[in-house]
Specification:
This protein is mainly alpha-helical and 131 residues long. Helices cover 62% and strands 8% of the residues. A two-stranded antiparallel sheet has the order 1-2. The radius of gyration is 17 Å and the shape is elongated.
Length: 131
């Protein structure tokens, strides 16, 4: 499990996929995974980091043109984070690369084996404690 974790982190896959700054990938993934509007506080929670660290990561992603801030129309003190076209393109490239990596790793597996693995892995991950 340790070997899997080290080799398959979001940052590692982003770096291998050609992302210039792999530290921003978890931020993009968190924005993409959000069920609704997401701010810095939600990013901090999703990444398991403190608010100042999340703020720095978000600022870097905004500076890199991967995210933009949009004012919350109901509360002018808040800003929502939104993927830019460049951010969405980067996510698409990283997702495609991840799919290639997994397809290569499971080459030769039957559809039944792949489905069983996906089901068991999903159950395993769901049962893990959240940090």
């Amino acid at each position: 499990m340790v070997a899997i974790r080290r080799r398959q982190t979001r940052r590692t896959l982003a770096r291998v996929a050609g992302a210039a700054d792999d530290t921003l990938q978890p931020v993009l993934d968190a924005v993409e995974a959000a069920d609704g509007p997401v701010g810095v506080g939600e990013i901090a929670e999703a990444l398991g980091v403190d608010q100042p660290r999340a703020s720095k990561l978000v600022a870097a992603a905004v500076g890199a043109g991967l995210l933009r801030r949009e004012a919350d129309q109901s509360d002018g003190r808040r800003a929502w984070l939104v993927l830019t076209d460049a951010g969405a393109e980067r996510l698409a490239r990283v997702h495609a690369f991840r799919r290639e990596v997994f397809a290569t790793a499971m080459a030769g597996w039957s559809e039944t084996e792949q489905a069983t693995f996906a089901e068991l892995l999903t159950r395993f991950v769901a049962a893990l404690p959240r940090p």
